[in-house]
Amino acid sequence: MKNRQRALRRTRFTAGALAAAAVLATAAFTAAPAQSETTDACPLPYPVDQVTPDLAVTGTTTTTGNQPEQLTGTTLGVLKDGIAPGLDMILVDLHSPTIDTKTHGIWSGMSGSPVYLDGKLLGAVAYSLGFAPSTIAGVTPAGEMQRMLSTGARPATPTPATVDIPQRIARRLVANGATTTQVDQGMRQLQLPFAVSGLSSSRLDQLAPLYQLGKMRVTGSTGGSGTATAQTTIEPGQNLAASMSYGTIAAAGFGTATMTCGNEVVGFGHPMNLTGPSTMTMHTADTVVVQDDSVLSGFTVANLGPAVGTIDQDRTAGIHGQLGAAPTGTPVDSVATSGGPIGVDGGETREGHSVVTVPDVFSQVAFTNMIAIQDRAMSQLSGGSGWAGWTIKGSHDGKPFSLTRKDLYADKSDMSSAMSLTMAEQLSTLEENGAEDVTFDSVSTDSRILRPYQKWTVTGVDIRRNFTFRALHEGFPTGLHAGRPVVLRVHLTSKQLGKKNVMVRTTVPKGALNRGGTLQVFGGDDGAPIDDEFFIDGFDILDFFFEDEGPSVDELLASYRSAPHHNDVVATLTFPNARGFASVPRTKRTPVPQVVVGGSFTVPVRGVR
Question: Are 351 and 438 members of one domain?
Answer without folding.
Answer: yes
